[in-house]
Amino acid sequence: MKRNEHKEDFMPASFTPSSSVAESIQNLGLNIRQARIRRSISMQSLSEMANTSRSTIQKVEQGDTGVSMGIYASVLHALGLLGNIREAAALANDPEGQQLALESLPKRVSSKRGSRTMRKTSRY
Q1: What is the rounded CA–CA span in Å between residue 99 and residue 51?
Q2: Residue 65: strand, helix, or coil
């Protein structure tokens, strides 16, 4: 079988994000644009710093949901803002996850019947 015979098997399915996701990405793009302008960095310079093309920077700043998360992360890194997303899904920033983790803890801890946790191995 040739490598490209089943190319459609490897192509990603088309994806349309929800309106809230699209709005969040658009807001991120706007924030990136404003951060770039505040730093007096041209689109061309930012594209070189983020190792991407100027047209991709333009898509990022427009909040294009078709741009990969890796590109958004590279642009944020180039602007010195990557640290803000490192903890996005961390437990410390996830109250619902914290609650679920607490609820999954055992209600009480007990040892197995018949087992002893401490045994004397020597007799005096």
Answers
A1: 40
A2: coil
